[in-house]
Amino acid sequence: MAGNAEWLAQVVEAALEPGLPIIDPHHHLWDHPGSRYELDELLADTGQGHNIRATVFVECKAMYRAAGPENLKPVGETEYVNGIAAKSASGQFGEMRACAGIVGFADLRLGAAVDAVLEAHLARAPERFRGIRHASAFDPSPDVRASHTLPPQGLLGLESFRAGFARLATYGLSFDAWHYHHQIPELTALARAFPETTIIFDHFGGPIGIGPYEGKRAEIFAQWKKDVAELAACPNVVAKIGGINMAVNGFGWHKRAKPPTSDELVAATRDWYLHAIDVFGPARCMFESNFPVDKLSCSYGVLWNAFKKIAGGFTVAEKASLFHDTAKRVYRIPD
Any residues with CB less than 8 A from the CB of 120 and at least 6 apart, and which? Predict the structure, then answer.
């Protein structure tokens, strides 16, 4: 992700509240031809003045195994990330502990047969593996990209998916949910059906702002508020608040001559954050970077300044939850 470094360098801000402890509960790692984001790049971003204590890696289809049973190929990603986590845990790269929690992928449509995949993930990273993300983002418009897992419409309601989902609680694993805004009721139904499983609501439920949704932000926001309030009534759901600066969200930051300042990010997105915090409560919310995906639009330092400005009116205890404690509890991050 070095391609936009010069563009991002046009806006540099000193870190606000630099001593505030932070766990970043959502980032990715990969090494694709022409696109690399590994420990060096993560350290460069987390080293922009904010007190990042630890991070959580979330699956992104990186380093799958080239051979072996199809269902076990995603275990290669956990092996890859656990190695980077071990490198970070050596202490040779600073105090921050990268990938202290790992969320991997397993095709939950395998039903009870998914046990073998879950056990393989846990065997490869027993101290760090925390949960599964099986993305369900689907929209019928050709202008809106589906998740990298290419899910069918209505994935969360499929009998086969739910049979696999039911196995997560047996292993003490959580579920990260990535979908689009009109699919939030599908997640609510899933949460009600499996109250014993912790579900993490990623990226505000993916409000779309492109294609057929362009110019409809106010209308989408009004329905989103109702859907999110209903989802928040499920006590087993927690919210990761962030990941709203992607191209699909339609703010168009990446098209500008200069990247946004933290004030501009706050002005454009504050209401989404405040509503989520209002209905879930700070103890069930955690700010997330979604890097390097959101790096298309803004720098890491600027993004966390925006979060701190949004949280400016909250108490010390509430800020501790939003920036550190919720992530620590949900992903069981060690001291």
Answer: 72, 75
